[in-house]
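Technical annex, item 7. During the second reporting period the consortium partners agreed on a shared format for inverse folding records so that results from different sites could be compared directly. Each record opens with the tokenized structure and is followed by the designed sequence. A conforming record, contributed by the partner at site C, is shown below for reference.
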């Protein structure tokens, strides 16, 4: 797709279950194409990570717990996987790995731990793009913003998902309190 004069490819990302809309995937793909290092905080099955990997040569660090209970009940996000898919141990991590197999381990690194712990473990790293999409409770998003913002390289892009008053008021509250001068594209908040 032509996105603001730049061609991005999100076809493969759109085949992966997730809640990110095409316009948002295109935005992340465009940001990724200008980045050398990316941190994704909360990756689930890899929909957004795939959009970023397919449109860049960046090294991508994905931090997530990949907990078996993360949307581990049947729903539209597991329909094509069969009724027992979410009952298997490490189902989510294995789905992520399958979706990103073309990039692991050469360009995509997995950090399987809580997002704040991952930020502490990576404290000496700097990223051109940090995308936050882990916990959606106020305390979670607040802690992620505080933990990951120091890892942003000068001139980098700091953003996150699910900025929506109706469905995620706690995300909205934390972003309004901690991210001055942000703007929103779809449900992605972006620091200026």
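Designed sequence (site C submission):
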């Amino acid at each position: 797709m032509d996105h603001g004069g730049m061609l991005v490819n999100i076809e493969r990302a759109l085949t992966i279950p997730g809640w990110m809309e095409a316009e948002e995937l295109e935005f992340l793909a465009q940001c990724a194409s200008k980045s050398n290092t990316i941190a994704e905080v909360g990756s689930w099955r890899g929909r957004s990570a795939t959009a970023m990997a397919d449109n860049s040569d960046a090294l991508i660090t994905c931090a997530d717990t990949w907990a078996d209970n993360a949307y581990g009940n049947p729903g539209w996000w597991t329909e094509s996987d069969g009724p027992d898919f979410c009952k298997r141990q490490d189902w989510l991590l294995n789905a992520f790995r399958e979706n990103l197999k073309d990039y692991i381990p050469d360009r995509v690194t997995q950090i399987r731990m809580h997002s704040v712990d991952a930020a502490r473990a990576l404290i000496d790293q700097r990223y051109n793009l940090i995308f936050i999409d882990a916990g959606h409770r106020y305390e979670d998003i607040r802690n992620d913003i505080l933990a990951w913002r120091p890892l942003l390289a000068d001139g980098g892009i700091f953003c996150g998902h699910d900025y929506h008053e109706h469905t995620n008021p706690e995300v909205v509250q934390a972003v309004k309190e901690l991210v001055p001068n942000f703007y929103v594209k779809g449900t992605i908040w972006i620091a200026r």
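Residues 8-68+96-191 form a domain with the Rossmann fold fold (CATH 3.40.50.150). The beta strands are 2-3, 6-7, 37-41, 59-64, 108-112, 127-132, 152-160, 182-185, 188-191. All partners now use this format for quarterly exchanges.
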